[in-house]
Amino acid sequence: MLDSLITQTRTALLINEMQLGVCHPDHAMFKAMPQEAQKRGVTGNIIALADAFRAAGQPVFHLPCIHRRDFGDVKRNSLISAMSLKHRGMTEGSPEAAFMPGLEPRPEDYVSTRSSGIFAFLGTDLDLRLRRMGVETVVVTGVSTNLGIPGIVMAAVDFGYNVVIAEDCTAGSDPEVHDMIVREQLRLLGVVTSKDEIIAALSKRG
User: Fold this and answer.
1) Is 77 exposed, middle or buried (0-12, 13-18, 19+ CB in 10 A)?
2) DSSP 66-89
3) What molecular function terms (GO) are annotated for this protein (predicted)?
4) Could you read off the pLDDT of 27-43 as tens digits, one per residue?
5) CA 152, CA 140: separation in Å to the nearest integer?
6) Residues 47/172, Cβ–Cβ less than 8 Å
7) SS3 of residue 21 by DSSP
């Protein structure tokens, strides 16, 4: 199934929140997140996958969260939003908002930025751009499997996309929670696989 999705449909790589304020130990609000991402080699794995997508002529989308400096559109209606309001990080131009080294968008890449909310399809032009480009399949990477990744996967399925999850290109704040979410949620919604399997499938595109 993976080969048919990758080789027979227009496929986009989605890279969620690979930013210093999430994944770098000196800047992250949740300190366990950078540790897990580093243990799993997430940054390097995504770099390799993004290079393979570009080489195959398939689009790469970066999906950062960059808050307004006044946090005017962030509502204190959840613990995560309350913590963001307290932390006041990842604002436009701040160190926390910067992309992880090696994952800065290339000129041929696309960036869909949100300033609030939990997942990248809400309040952005992501769905519109994917549809205009004829994308049918999305490969989901980045962080975190606690919130953002399941949100993107569920939204993508509801919007009618085929979903592939590059499991070794994702991480959560706790390895047991990550494994549970992958096993009990993500595998029911998409194809869970590895970067190497996806790269091998990309190499078969005509």
Assistant:
1) exposed
2) -B-TT-TT--S-SHHHHHHHHH--
3) hydrolase activity
4) 888 889 999 999 999 99
5) 8
6) no
7) helix
Pairing type for strands 11-16 and 60-63 reads parallel
Buried b or exposed e, range 120-148, using 16+ CB within 10 angstroms:
bbeebebbeebeeeebebbbbbbbbbbbb
Q: DSSP alpha helices (H): ranges in 32-164?
A: 32-39, 42-55, 79-87, 126-132, 148-158
34, 26 in Cβ contact below 8 A?
A: no
**φ/ψ (deg, to 5) at 188:** -80, -15
Counting every residue written for the chain, the total comes to: 206
Nearest by Cα to 20 from 118, 78, 111, 104: 104
155 neighbors 114 (Cβ within 8 angstroms): no
**What is the tens place of the pLDDT at every residue in 87-125?**
777 899 999 999 999 999 999 999 999 998 888 998 899
